[in-house]
Amino acid sequence: MIKQLKRFIPKSIKQWLVLKLTKIQSPVLGVGEDIRIVGHAAISISQKRALVAYITAPFRLGPDDPRNLEFSNIGIGRSIVRALNELDYVVDVVEYSDKRFMPRNDYDLFIGHTGRNFQRIAGRLKPGTVKIYFSSGPYWRFWNEQEVKRIESLRQRRQVKYPFERIIKESEEWANENADAIICLGNDYARQSYSRFPKVFNLNNASYYDDRYDWTKKDFTSARKNFLFFSGPGNVHKGLDLLLEAFIGLGAHLYICQRINPDFLKIYRNELTVAPNIHLVGVIPMRSRQFYELVDRCAFIINPSCAEGQPGGVVECMHQGLIPVVSRETNIDTGDYGITFQDCSVGEIVETVRDLSGRSPEWCAEMSRKTRRVAVSEFSASLFLRNIKDIIRSRVAGIISGPLEPERDGWNTWKG
């Protein structure tokens, strides 16, 4: 298994796994970290300093850890630090949730995540430090409103009590209002959720390159009737309830890769355990043998989520050529290669699944090739790095020293 994983770990990840971690304040990992992440270039006293409050896990994983294959959120964390290193910043990384951390250095730039710690850290930085809010999704109030609607809809349809799953409990308002700029994952729809804030930049999520698609042949005659739901936590938030109600009685098959909440299982036990066309697989590692078996079996990745910053599971499956069938709130532009639900009603899902499972194998094969091309060109790790570097260098840095010209070496997704 380890040898198989090593084959798919990109060279860029291997290089980052050898970074030296120094200045760990506490012997207990996860508490009180102040981790200096230094790139391959030598440090000079003229270098700028940046503090990143995101996640420290990317810099603690061993080279054989399967999580190295996950771009969200491991690759995102590495890319932010690498971009700053390449912009000549010395970077300190702290866990975003670590309320015991106290900044002791003077920083030129602070990038923080969620409302849990942003205000406390920002208030302890020197005057003039540029503060950037990094969001992995849309505006937090919009996110909460969307989940409330989904939970209330379930309660009304099934006449049951059901807890909220992914409500953001800690306000992000101060961070959004006081940040010099906001960077969010997602398309322009995600950026527009922050419309009342002046400087908001969006960029696509990504997945690491995998060439398996290029040498694997799929039987689309059978695959066109199979839909994969490969998702992180939140059964109702992600729309699994809607999928289960839609797929009952359909000729198409639904393969579910997600952890099931016990409260959710009580409501949908029959659909999850009895229905012959609904298959509960559970949580499986990305790019494992079982994952590839499901990718080969299915033609579509389906995700009617109510709020996202471009789900990493969908992006990964697009890299494997699975045609995206998603809600507008996944913030993925499906262009001419995928399907975007208009309202994610059960009726709309039924109609869409029937239509797609009846398409010709040739149509499915062509859409799969288009999906793969878009994934490689617009959702790549290298493009994510270039885009976030462009945002920081060309726009955010302008807050300090005036506007700079952006790099001209490639396409980017951010908008100012």
Features:
16 helices, disordered N terminus, alpha/beta, eight-stranded mixed sheet, 14 strands, six-stranded parallel sheet, Rossmann fold, 416 residues, globular, disordered C terminus
Structure characterization notes:
This protein is an alpha/beta fold and 416 residues long. It has 2 domains: 2-206 and 380-401, 3-Layer(aba) Sandwich (Rossmann fold); 212-377, Rossmann fold (3-Layer(aba) Sandwich). The protein has helices at residues 2-8, 11-16, 71-86, 118-122, 140-158, 173-178, 188-192, 220-223, 240-247, 262-267, 269-273, 289-297, 312-319, 346-357, 361-378, 381-401; strands at 21-22, 35-37, 48-54, 89-95, 109-113, 130-135, 181-185, 200-203, 226-230, 253-257, 278-280, 300-303, 323-327, 339-341. The strands form 2 sheets. The protein has an 8-stranded mixed beta sheet. Helix 3 crosses helix 16 and helix 13 packs across helix 15 (361-378). The N and C termini lie far apart (44 Å).
Detail the topology: elements first, then pairings.
Blueprint (H helix, E strand, L loop, with lengths): L1 H7 L2 H6 L4 E2 L12 E3 L10 E7 L16 H16 L2 E7 L13 E5 L4 H5 L7 E6 L4 H19 L14 H6 L2 E5 L2 H5 L7 E4 L16 H4 L2 E5 L9 H8 L5 E5 L4 H6 L1 H5 L4 E3 L8 H9 L2 E4 L8 H8 L3 E5 L11 E3 L4 H12 L3 H18 L2 H21 L15
Parallel strand pairs: 3-4, 3-5, 5-6, 6-7, 7-8, 9-10, 9-12, 10-11, 12-13, 13-14
Antiparallel strand pairs: 1-2, 2-4
Helix pairs in contact: 3-16, 9-14, 13-15
